[in-house]
């Protein structure tokens, strides 16, 4: 698609070739990038499941004619689509059961009952915030829709969020609008889904749980804010199975993970937002900031590291490192393949485990260095993941070749023994550590990261009432 967009931008006619089943996603992508109606040609079947002869035969018999037609047909951009309703248009009325059924039929809900977003409810949600409902925070690259305060509030009402959660939602939309996060990848076939981490002095007052069951539904703030994200991606970004979401299996929505701020302060470890700042060249910072922050990335898989046994860092590090290694597989293509040096898995420690390190005087950097030594796999297995078992790395290079060319650091080529152990990340700072969960249990949880398909991104949460010129929502004060 990006090659076609570049060609069309230069005035050169093009046709994008897409796999069978991806037509809806391709049309949505083109629309989001400002090229509605971009010509498509569809291949028959999955290219990786066919022999070269089958692929050529199907391409010649079916796809070539579509390419020729796309290059010679009249400009399709004039095709009319059903216009979307305006922001304040009433699209339905009826009983609560009828409304719920309509939202299901139209694909506007996540399958669960929603709070009907009536004008009164949306106005009440924004009341007192000072935000102009028509203010735009960006554009959804996958759909071309404006990311407005009004649309944020509509989906927040549907998800059951409270007005005090609006600053958190605004910060999350700023992440979605950031090209570095890459929200347009939110429907890729591996089905990675977002994990949200929140930290700061106000998280407890906002109702976020950092204790037992932190990753389970049930606590209102953690659950409703995470549900809002899924609804917003669905209704504004267009990530639904008939349009832009092509996840083969998909992950369930993960509740927001609030960090145990008291434990972090006790042991002197920085929050995730500060870890990310330091890793990307920002100043080294210890301890906790005085502002609330949200950090978000898309993660592929998760695994429990249960019943961690040991009373010293040296005793428990091997098990924790093994958990990080076990959750990491195809994701290594973000160490090299789909991207280089872009893999950042997350290890969530229960406060009990974190305090084992704290009592021993270990800084977060000490723990990262220790995990770096223990989060290893055989070099041959690493090479299989980025080459033999996938088609994402041209030439199936050996790790020694990648080190020789300067792509990867020397630690990946300390010998040429295929059984030697190599790390799963390029440097210790790539191993992110959060502290949350039941403070009386010795468990941890490891999450693999999807690299640039949802890059770790952080924003501050601003609770200050806005000074926007708020207009009468029902009047003539829409966008100029």
Provide the descriptors you would attach to this structure in a database record:
single chain, seven-stranded mixed sheet, alpha/beta, 15 helices, 34% helix
Structure description:
The protein has about 475 residues and is α/β, with parallel strands linked by helices. It has a domain at about 1-80. About 35% of the residues lie in helices and about 15% in strands. The chain has 15 helices and 13 strands. It has helices spanning about 1-10, 25-30, 50-70, 95-105, 120-125, 150-160, 165-175, 220-235, 260-265, 270-280, 315-325, 350-360, 365-375, 380-390, 400-405, and strands at about 15-20, 40, 135-140, 145-150, 195-200, 255-260, 290-305, 345-350, 375-380, 420-425, 430-435, 445-450, 455-460. The strands form four sheets. Strands 5, 6, 7, 8, 11, 12 and 13 form a seven-stranded mixed sheet that branches. Strand 3 (about 135-140) and strand 4 (about 145-150) form a beta hairpin. The longest helix is centred in the N-terminal third of the chain and has 21 residues, at about 50-70. The radius of gyration is 24 Å and the shape is flat.
How many DSSP E strands? 13
Q: What share of residues is helical?
A: 25-40%
Which structural class fits the helix and strand makeup? alpha/beta
Shape: flat
Ranges where pLDDT stays below 50 over 5 or more residues in a row are 76-80
From the alpha carbons, calculate the radius of gyration and give it in angstroms: 24 Å
Per DSSP, what share of the residues sits in E-state strands of 2 or more residues? 5-15%
Order of helices and strands: HEHEHHHEEHHEHEHHEHEHHEHHEEEE
What value does the average pLDDT take?
A: 89
Biggest beta sheet attributes = 7 strands, mixed
Distance between the termini: 32 Å
- Counted by DSSP, the helix tally is 15
